[in-house]
Amino acid sequence: MENFNTLYNIKIPDKSIDLLGIFYNYIWLLKIIKNDIGGGLTVNNTMRYKGYVGSVEISENDTVFYGKVLGIRSLISYEGANATELIADFHGAVDDYLAMCKEDGVAPETAYKGSFNVRITPQLHEKLAICAQNQGISLNKLIEKALQAYHPIKAI
């Protein structure tokens, strides 16, 4: 298997690490990998219903719209021949999931609880921790501030 950096022709600078740039490139790479693995046309969009976020994609080969609820472990998927059918099936799938949870006496999963793991090098971890300490804030607060300042996130 080829080296990932060689396969995608990625140039990673070895001076002054830009944390926000790393996050942006990570999201960009995920989109590239998704397109490479899945093939065909991909529509990167989302829709919301009752606190759940669903993906919107299109299968060029099957000529169908499809998606799944994002941010939870349960698989809630839906599809439609057009946008109206996709939205209706998304709403129906979420409603069915919530009804099933209620019937089974189980709390529905909640997406995006506000915590996630980020794996970084020990050297970057040290630099960030020192930076946070110098500013008198927690490491979590430093990362939160950096992500809030990230311009592409503001567009979502």
Rg, Å, rounded: 20 Å
Give the termini separation: 35 Å
Structural class: alpha+beta
What is the typical, i.e. mean, pLDDT?
78
Number of strands: 4
Which sequence of SSEs, written as H and E, runs from N to C? HHEEEEHHHH
Q: Please work out how many helical segments DSSP would assign.
A: 6
Tell me the fraction of residues in β-strands, as a range: 15-25%
Helix percentage: 40-55%
Largest sheet: 4 strands, antiparallel
Contiguous uncertain segments of 5+ residues: 1-17, 35-43
Shape: elongated
Oligomerization state: single chain
What is the strand arrangement across the widest sheet? 1-2-3-4
Main traits of this protein?
156 residues, four-stranded antiparallel sheet, 15% strand, elongated
What features would you describe in this structure?
The protein has 156 residues and is an alpha+beta fold. Helix content is 47%, strand content 15%. The protein has helices spanning 4-7, 19-38, 83-104, 122-135, 139-148, 151-154, and strands spanning 45-49, 52-59, 64-70, 77-80. The protein has a four-stranded antiparallel beta sheet, covered by helices on one side. Strand 1 and strand 2 form a beta hairpin. The longest helix is centred in the middle third of the chain and has 22 residues, at 83-104. It is elongated. It starts with a helix and ends with a helix. The model is unreliable at 1-17 and 35-43 (pLDDT under 50).
